[in-house]
Design goal:
The chain starts with 21 loop residues before the first helix and ends with a strand. It is α/β, with parallel strands linked by helices. The chain is built from eight helices and eight strands. 37% of the residues are buried. Strand 5, helix 6 and strand 6 form a beta-alpha-beta unit. The N terminus is likely disordered. The protein is globular. Strands 1-4-3-2-5-6-8-7 form an eight-stranded mixed beta sheet, with helices on both faces. This is tRNA (guanine-N(7)-)-methyltransferase. InterPro entries: SAM-dependent_MTases_sf (IPR029063), tRNA_(Gua-N-7)_MeTrfase_Trmb (IPR003358), tRNA_methyltr_TrmB_bact (IPR055361). GO terms for molecular function: tRNA (guanine(46)-N7)-methyltransferase activity. Pathway: tRNA modification; N(7)-methylguanine-tRNA biosynthesis.
Length: 226
């Protein structure tokens, strides 16, 4: 059964009207037609979208895209699909795609749950990245957190056998919840005893660096599909 595709489910994000810079607007206009895939209620032909056959990694909620572009540039043998709802972030990453000449990255501006339900074929992904999702840190808002059992089951179903799920957060209580939820998913296996060392491919963000200097923690979790 698909994970709650109705319009009435609790969403993990709030759509906000951010200001587009001139450069972001230009990137949307000039690069959007090539690199921004439309949301459709049909399975995505990944080989057609990228013009080749390669392992595909999905990133959910890429923010302004610096981490995404860094990883895509470092892994030219893999293809990346970034999903983000906020227009300035999409424009920012398109700008980076143009500046860095990246050809292995495509974007979808839409709700990730609906993208997974409608566009991503089961057992088709080599990996999924979810870095620093909104912690919804107030207790009454915890139900809005993205990492819930039903969503993790959806992610697991999208992974090919041996594919990996990499999460990261700088909120300790969310890290605890993530570890509990992922450990309870029968289709996943933890690659570490608890939290994982930060994989080399994930760069430190400027906010993460700032937090680490202040003594804040960061927790990575890496699970693989059985």
């Amino acid at each position: 059964m698909l994970y709650d595709p109705s319009e009435h489910r609790i969403r993990s994000f709030v759509t906000r009207a951010g200001r587009l810079s001139i450069a972001q607007a230009r990137a949307l206009e000039e690069l959007g037609p090539r690199f921004l895939l439309p949301y459709v209620k049909a399975p995505l032909d990944v080989e057609l979208a990228f013009g080749r056959k390669a392992p595909v990694i999905l990133e959910i909620g890429f923010g302004m895209g610096a981490t995404t572009s860094h990883i895509a540039a470092a892994m030219p043998d893999k293809d990346f699909i970034g999903v983000e709802v906020h227009t300035p972030g999409v424009g920012s990453l398109l700008k980076q795609i143009g500046e860095q000449g990246l050809t292995n990255l495509r974007l979808i501006q839409h709700d990730a749950v609906e993208v997974l339900n409608q566009m991503i074929k089961p057992a088709s992904l080599a990996g999924v990245h979810v870095f620093f999702p909104d912690p919804w840190h107030k207790a009454r808002h915890n139900k809005r957190r993205l990492i819930q059992p039903e969503f993790v089951k959806l992610l697991t179903d999208s992974l090919a056998p041996g594919g990996y799920l990499h999460l990261a957060t700088d909120w300790e209580d969310y890290a605890v919840q993530m570890l509990e939820v992922l450990s309870a998913e029968a289709g996943l296996r933890n690659t570490a005893e608890g939290y994982a060392p930060q994989p080399d491919y994930r760069p430190l963000t400027k906010f993460e660096n700032r937090g680490l200097k202040l003594g804040h923690g960061v927790w990575d979790l890496v699970f693989t599909k059985k």
